[in-house]
Amino acid sequence: MSIRWNLLGIISLAVTSCLVCADPADAADLDSGKSFVTSNPGVGGLAGPSSGETMQPGIAVAAADPAASPATSPIDDYFANWFVRVDQAKQSQPHWLPPLMTMSPLITELLRQDAYYQWAGNGSRVLNLGAGKGLFLVPWKTIEVDFGIPSFQQRYDVQPAAGIPDWQFLLVKQRLFSANEQEGNYIVTAAVAAQAPIGIPQFTDSAFVITPSLAAGKGFGNFNIQAATSLVIPTAHEDTIGTALRTNVAFQYHLGELLWPEFEVNWAHWFDGTQRGGGDEVFLTVGALVGPIPIAGRVSIVFGGGFQFAVALSQMLGPTLTPEYQSNIIFSGRIGF
After folding, report:
1. Could you give the 3-state DSSP secondary structure of residue 33?
2. Residue 21, SS3?
3. How deeply is 101 buried, as exposed, middle or buried, from its count of CB atoms within 10 A (0-12, 13-18, 19+)?
4. Tens of pLDDT, residues 275-321
5. Domain parsing of the chain, residue ranges
6. DSSP class per residue in 183-198
7. Distance CA 288, CA 259 (A)
8. What is the pLDDT at residue 134?
9. Residues of the chain predicted below pLDDT 50
10. Which of 163, 189, 153, 147 lies closest to 21 in space, CA to CA?
11. At the topology level of CATH, where does 2-21+96-336 sit?
12. Sign (positive/negative) of CA torsion 220, 225, 228, 229?
């Protein structure tokens, strides 16, 4: 038990320190964004003459009255330059796609919804719509805040049930180091997530769960590796649920303009708990993503899917299924902006 709380203390302190040391866009970043926006010529004569033209005689040009320009507040400036910061975040990191199952170290702004269809070792089938994904925003150029949308889950055949499972309502990422493809092609990010026990009785752990994580990635030309390790810590019923270490590694290749085939290894180990204490599960995931496909303006879509299957030790049916399921069909849809 002392080892678990020492681990919790070290990881929580590290992640909290990373999040506190956020690097929000400074005045120079915002000024550069404003100059980019305002440097374009206007429409017709409203923009004034170009550098090589002369004014026609007899035409009076009114001087700008500073008092006539309404002053903008810092809040107005912040939202006016929102997409400037998003573009700066993209330009200062690799241009990969977040994998199907592995938490990506990339800072992205998008709306994402996934779906899973799983077969368990006890003969049951589970459909999950949403998979805990939602709206991902970039409020500062090195920070991503994800607001999860509650999922819907239905279990068939064995102990049938339908309703809302527990809800990962928040994930905050702080990018620590990064470089785009021309400057090193790497990224390191710290994150912390929070899950609320709002699920129906059949789909809840009846405890809030805190998950600090560390994710990183490195690219080699069109090939990249993205990995993340997380400590899943229940705030109650720890003696039953147990603390788990989850590690995921994704191998991704950019083929042509839009195709991103991938292969993932997904591993989990429970340190304690009467349900799965000392147990392990290992999944392999094969899949592909397509995109980003431009739609209009800065809006684009990415979609894809894959198949995940368990390769760990033989199925344990009690006291709790381990691995949690035997196979899983995955679909992922994303709208970037």
Report:
1. helix
2. coil
3. buried
4. 888 889 999 999 999 999 999 999 999 999 999 999 966 666 666 77
5. 2-21+96-336
6. TT-EEEEEEEEEEE--
7. 7
8. 97
9. 1-68
10. 189
11. Porin (2.40.160)
12. negative
